[in-house]
Amino acid sequence: MSHKPFESRSTILTSFPSRTHFAVGSTMSALGKGFTRHHYRVFALKKTPYGSESPLHRHCIVLTRPAHLSRSLAEPLQAAGASILYFPTLAIAPIIPAPSASHILTNIERYDGILLTSQNAVEYFFKQVPRSLCNQWQQTKVHPRLLCVGQATARALDTYGLSASHVATQATAENLLQELLQEGVQGKYFLFPSSIEARQHLPRGLRKNGATVEVWPLYRPVCANTDPQPLIKKLNRREVDLIVVASPSTVRFLFMLIEPNLLKAPEIQWAAIGPTTAQSLLEQGISSPLIAKPPGIPGLVKTLLDHFT
Q1: What confidence tens digit (pLDDT) does each residue in 138-175 have?
Q2: For all residues of the chain together, what is the average pLDDT?
Q3: Residue 81: helix, strand or coil by DSSP?
Q4: Can you say whether the dihedral through the CA atoms of 36, 68, 171, 287 is positive or negative?
């Protein structure tokens, strides 16, 4: 059966028959003024193999990233009995016009390493890299080291036929910095393609230890044009058990889209992908969020299942 996107604003499932789960696929189109419209299609997934003894049976979990970016988190939670409500709060927009790439790409081999701290950084960096250069890197295996903050970022390189040169043992900029410092960075030259709002902890730490870091902002987070009413209705009915957030920007935009008092209901548990995102929740007045240990999606899945078991 084919499924056509709805013509209206984003439509998100608001009722969940027992043990039957749904996903919402999305496409995006630029709207200007920093917003992106999401169009959704709703389709049923197979029933969970667990019964009423599953740890997340009848729990409604809100994921604040689009469905296509949330599968590695959603699938194990659904398998444990959860009902998933996708409520994307963040979209990514390129910086237009993009900062000039000529001086960077002409002498790309001068860099000792390229610092990649997210899947978006990988995507927007390779939008600037000519296909011929990418093919050359694939064939010769000679290129600046591709230094990734976590496994999800490293997997994003698969699209371009490349592999990470180094992946931080824990998915944080702090861990990547410490591991690079252990190797020694004095006199080395790094490129940091990133969001215009990216934390500067990594480049700052490298510079303090004798490295040169060129920051290359290529994209920015914007508030998604997601219809808040389905989530508001579930919050008013006290049907939300858990909200999962994956970045400080996700937190910021969620509190722009939804009345903060609704989000601060005492029965709602919160979970953050890492300590930086957890700090953003604390700044919004959300106390005692669950924090993935170790940071990243696998650690988040384990933390959630351990908490609800």
Answers
A1: 999 999 999 999 898 999 999 999 999 999 998 899 99
A2: 84
A3: coil
A4: positive
Q: Which of 170, 185, 220 is the last residue of a domain?
A: 220
Task: Evaluate the omega torsion of the peptide bond into residue 294 and state whether it is cis, within 30 degrees of 0.
Answer: yes
Q: What pLDDT is recorded for position 37?
A: 41
Measured CA to CA, the distance from residue 12 to residue 36 in angstroms comes to 16
Amino acid at position 214, single letter: E
Place of tokens 């049976």: 57
240 domain-assigned: yes
Contact 119, 126 (CB under 8 A): no
Q: Rounded to two decimals, what is the model's pTM? A: 0.73
- Rounded Cα–Cα distance for residues 127 and 96 (Å): 13
Q: What is the CA radius of gyration of the chain?
A: 20
Domain count, the chain: 2
| pLDDT tens, position by position, 279-289 | 999 999 999 99
Q: What is the DSSP string of 99-138?
A: PP-HHHHTTGGG-SEEEE-SHHHHHHHHHHS-HHHHHHHH
Find the domain containing 61 and state its range.
Answer: 22-89+226-308
Amino acid (one-letter) located at 36: T
C-beta pairs of 290-294 under 8 Å, 24+ apart in sequence? 294/170, 294/171
Residue 63 within any structural domain of the chain: yes
